[in-house]
Structure prediction request, 123 residues.
Amino acid sequence: MTGLTYEEVNVVVYFVIIPAVFFALIDRIIKRPVCLLVFSGVMLLAYLRIQNFTLFSEQLFNTSVRFLLGFSSFGIGYDMASVIICVVMPIILFIVMATMAFPCWSRRYLPTISKLTNRFRKV
Prediction:
């Protein structure tokens, strides 16, 4: 539907959209619009520099696959490693950062997690 390959979609989601969301949350936590601005500048420079996005995406995707395959030395297969690294960890990180970025929302809807993140802030 988008005209993008599977590899291109993965690169856009995991190397652009998800980091942008995390940097926006960091900016909200530190109360300064710095991280997302710097990240956007880096992404703009990368966009201008990359001549063939399809080839770039294939190479970056294959590098990511090799990284995930590397977990086999710890007894974790590619499928499990991709679920842990690409799904579970980002969700956990997002929940923790969102509770820190939006304390009123988190106290109301996630009281247990909010208490845990308040402990991290005190440290």
